[in-house]
Amino acid sequence: MPSVLPDGEPMPEDGALPPAALAGAARRPLGFYLHVPYCATRCGYCDFNTYTASELRGSGGVLASRDNYAEQVTEEVRLARKVLGDDPRPVETVFVGGGTPTLLAAADLGRMLAAVREEFGLADGAEITTEANPESVDPRYLAELREAGFNRVSFGMQSARRHVLKVLDRTHTPGRPEQCVAEARAAGFDHVNLDLIYGTPGESDDDWRASLEAALGAGPDHVSAYALIVEEGTQLARRIRRGEVPMTDDDVHADRYLIAEELLSAAGFEWYEVSNWATTPEGRCRHNELYWRGADWWGAGPGAHSHVGGVRWWNVKHPGAYAQALGEGRSPGAGRELLADEERRVERILLELRLSEGCPLDLLRPAGAAAAERALADGLLDPAPYRHGRAVLTLRGRLLADAVVRDLVD
Asked: Which of 27, 33, 84, 208 is the most buried (most CB within 10 A)?
């Protein structure tokens, strides 16, 4: 089942934010994340806040139904408008994630997007993305999404090898994600992403190369490649604990990352975040860049997280509880935290160091600055941007990014 929510102070019933959070808001980008918590089946590695029909049966009744979910999200978007008041910012990015958003009708996703457009307006050239399961879309569905205003789609490919997909409990057939890219292009999508996972138990270097080559052959302009993280409480974690499948070690993950960098860069992709590559600056996921740069976003849906002006909050997890709160005119927020200046400084280092532009050296305290000097000497930071006041990871530094970050935030 999904992981637990963080601790925090109670969220006001009306969702109101401290005045300081709204100060200077007009100078910050604003995005919306719309969470769809439904899945046809639960993948063995997943601990996201998602629910299958059997998990919802008897625990939410009609409140947790997919049939009226678009209206519930619309209600939260209206709540956002009340909370943000006369905030003049049009929305620059909308990202519909899950779960499997494309289990909903395309018209429902269109209604959710329309609510954001009607309440806030969309900036010129706004990036509008939805995630999609390859088996849950077809050419007509993709055409309907494009007509509704979506211009970017992200398909969960994970692997091109059947036995790897089986370990991950993915139900799509090998080759289907690549077909989806062609169908999305035919529907008029400007940008298409394929998500890949490396380090699955039983995956070989050759399997990983084959997955990358299949993804590149499909012609996306963005590829995300994530190391498999085995989360406690998942079916995969239980299988590893029982000895049914082996645990993949860190050295294998590092080798797979180097293979990804080799093949992607040879195909004209450039990394712009440790796990993300794009063929052009326009192909980058601008919504995720909002997160990495600490901008403002409102997360609507069960378990969704939001951040505005140093205030971070999260919604109740269960779809039934979410629907009940909105139905009673209450914020679905379960808790929040007000980030102090030091917390925001540390978060900037944590997130910005993962970007190809790196983070400013003047964010570092003396101990962190000394650690940066050592990282530079060890070949973990790039000398050229360092001379201009920025800490940028080298390829070797990307392999050790978590360790470098831990040292620099001291």
From this structure: 208
Per-residue model confidence as pLDDT tens digits over 16-27: 999 999 999 989
For residue 308, the surrounding DSSP H or E stretch is strand 305-308
Residue 202: what are its φ and ψ, rounded to 5°? 90, -10
Q: Taking the alpha carbons of 355, 305, 97, 254 in that order, is the dihedral positive or negative?
A: positive
What pLDDT digit, counting tens, does each position of 370-397 carry? 999 999 999 999 999 999 999 999 999 9
SS3 assignment, position 195: strand
For residue 85, cis peptide bond before it (omega within 30 degrees of 0): no
Distance, in Å, from the CA atom of 287 to the CA atom of 292, rounded to the nearest integer, reads 9
User: Concatenated DSSP letters for 121-163?
Assistant: -EEEEEEEEEEE-GGG--HHHHHHHHHHT--EEEEEEE-S-HH
Query: Between vectors from CA 161 to CA 160 and to CA 163, what angle results, nearest 5°?
Result: 150
Q: Which tokens is 156 given? A: 């969960």
